[in-house]
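A.,

Following up on our hallway conversation. Structure tokens first:
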């Protein structure tokens, strides 16, 4: 973790309120998992926590507090859109030096930066809110490439720009010509205090069921490995637009009866999901520092991953198996992982626990508090 303020904060009074801007409040995913860990602890420290939802909320907010949404239907008239835009700008103009606005991705930044820039022009720095942009994917991801103009604007407007790890922070800093800090995501599960001694014969895939997660690679890889490992099963945890298609694919596979779709799981039950697993399979096209990877490691679960970011590659080399970016290579890696001896698995499990220490919620929350209060 690194402290790298992007702007001078001379004469700023203490922050009293934090507004998190995300795609859709309540939607299953890494940002929502982060907020369900971070927001309650910020409230416990005396900060007021509120939310801005780019799309209509999908569920309850992580903590009690105002949830604002300025989205309008696609069929809305020009006047309805204009009114929503004016309400958004009025809210941004109401933010003062005791407020922090934290934008969690480029989508929310695109919605909020024009109004935030306009509000900044009307007041001196000492009367502006603390503005923070945290990017949750890697620098060379498709998300960053598509959103580069927005992110560069965020780099120019926001006091703080954060990546999820120091490697990505250095890349953003070099490209955008400013200081960039890093704060990793906290895990939503307790970090196990003792190494595991028994390997469950279950592969777990925890992901939003969307195209970029490539869960179909996991299904086909498991099916290919399953004939050599009759005691193993695959559990898919999560939901999303691809679920029906993935369930049809699983039903068509030779070992589909050993694949179970569990849907979304409450945060309180996640530790049990990982404790019942011997391996985590993650075949994403791109990631930053994925929450599921940190959660699995926190429970001592070795990982099988595609090279979706520098952080993922480093983790897989230290505590699991790294495939090349192809379905065939991922199948080979998962088969090798399932074929491990128990003693080798225990060594990787211990290495996973060691890797997870950086994501301990207490350390991450303390880092956010330092950023908000300095």
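Then the amino acids I'd put at each of the 374 positions:
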């Amino acid at each position: 973790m690194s402290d790298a303020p992007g702007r001078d904060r001379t004469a700023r009074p203490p922050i009293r309120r934090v507004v998190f801007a995300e795609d859709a409040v309540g939607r299953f995913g890494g940002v929502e998992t982060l907020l369900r860990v971070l927001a309650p602890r910020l409230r416990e420290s005396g900060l007021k926590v509120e939310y801005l939802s780019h799309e209509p909320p999908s569920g309850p907010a992580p903590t009690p507090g105002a949830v604002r949404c300025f989205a309008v239907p696609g069929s809305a008239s020009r006047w309805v859109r204009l009114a929503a835009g004016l309400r958004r700008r009025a809210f941004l103009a109401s933010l003062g030096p005791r407020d922090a606005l934290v934008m969690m991705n480029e989508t929310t930044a695109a919605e909020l930066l024009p109004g935030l820039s306009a509000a900044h022009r009307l007041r001196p720095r000492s009367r502006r809110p603390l503005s923070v942009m945290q990017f949750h994917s890697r620098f060379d991801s498709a998300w960053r490439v598509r959103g580069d103009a927005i992110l560069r604007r965020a780099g120019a407007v926001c006091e703080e720009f954060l990546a999820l790890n120091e490697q990505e922070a250095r890349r953003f800093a070099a490209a955008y010509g400013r200081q960039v800090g890093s704060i990793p995501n906290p895990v939503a599960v307790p970090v196990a205090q003792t190494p595991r001694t028994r390997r469950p014969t279950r592969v777990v895939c925890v992901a939003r069921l969307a195209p970029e997660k490539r869960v179909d690679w996991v299904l086909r890889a498991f099916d290919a490995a399953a004939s050599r490992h009759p005691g193993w099963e695959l559990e898919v945890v999560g939901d999303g637009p691809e679920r029906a298609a993935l369930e049809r694919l699983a039903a068509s596979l030779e070992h589909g009866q050993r694949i179970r779709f569990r849907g979304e799981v409450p945060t309180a039950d996640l530790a049990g999901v990982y404790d019942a697993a011997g391996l985590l399979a993650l075949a994403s096209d791109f990631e930053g520092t994925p929450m599921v990877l940190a959660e699995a490691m926190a429970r001592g679960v070795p990982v099988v991953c595609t090279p979706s970011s520098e952080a993922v590659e480093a983790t897989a080399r230290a505590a699991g198996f790294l495939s090349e970016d192809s379905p065939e290579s991922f199948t080979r890696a998962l088969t090798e992982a399932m074929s491990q001896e128990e003693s080798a698995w225990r060594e990787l499990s211990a290495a996973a626990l060691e890797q997870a220490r950086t994501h301990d919620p207490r350390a991450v929350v303390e880092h956010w508090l330092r950023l908000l209060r300095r």
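The chain has two domains: 17-183, 202-359. Curious whether your intuition agrees with the design.

B.
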